UniProtKB/TrEMBL annotation:
This is Sensory transduction protein RegX3. GO terms for molecular function: phosphorelay response regulator activity; transcription cis-regulatory region binding. CDD domains: REC_OmpR, trans_reg_C. PANTHER family: REGULATOR OF RPOS (PTHR48111), SENSORY TRANSDUCTION PROTEIN REGX3 (PTHR48111:SF72). Residues 148-243 form the OmpR/PhoB-type domain. Pfam families: Response_reg, Trans_reg_C. Residues 148-243 bind DNA. It comes from Streptomyces boncukensis.
Amino acid sequence: MRLLLVEDDDHVAAALSAVLGRHGLDVVHVRSGADALQELLPGAPGEGACGFDVVLLDLGLPDQDGFEVCGRIRRTSSTPVIMVTARADVRSRIHGLNLGADDYVVKPYDMGELLARIHAVSRRAVAEDPAAPGAAQEAAQGAPGAADGTLRLGTVTIELPTRQVRVDGAEISLTRKEFDLLALLAQRPGVVFRREQIISEVWRTSWEGTGRTLEVHVASLRAKLRRPALIETVRGVGYRMSAQGA
């Protein structure tokens, strides 16, 4: 697995590269956002020299904010991005995921946790192809009211074949995992999905550390749909889609 490490602290990068290397990862280290984009973006001098499976992106870069770098990567590439930062507030997490980050790890972190997240995002990474099979399409099989591939929850419309979501007729932009999560819950309004079940279906992993990522994705969905009550929290169990719709 080839990994691009974007980290301006050479000591941190050296230690991390050594550990990742011992676990079989081929690490390329760059110190700035500009260098990262040079490695990743189409048409850049370094493009094609090495294809990356995962990007580890520090947010505190010397030339530009990591959020900006992530946004530019995501506009042209589907390479999984894991943000690694000391910014632990929920707003930063949601902002990073909205920009297209696949995961968000807060420093200091456990190395075993980081390795598990790297392997998890690499396993679940798929091309951004609406026709490709995935959790959303699988969730739709047998779903009530989805004979034409469309789910309707009040004024929220979910078009599974095209992976488009509309609220009051206006299309909204969701990340890959936000859409998969929404489609899973929407297949059975009123039915409680356990956290472990959601993580297994959407993230394709049983690793418990994904739970915090699930919470952030739910919060982001509620904000984007502008229907906070549409996804209900069942304390100690999981989540369900409101049977009353939006």
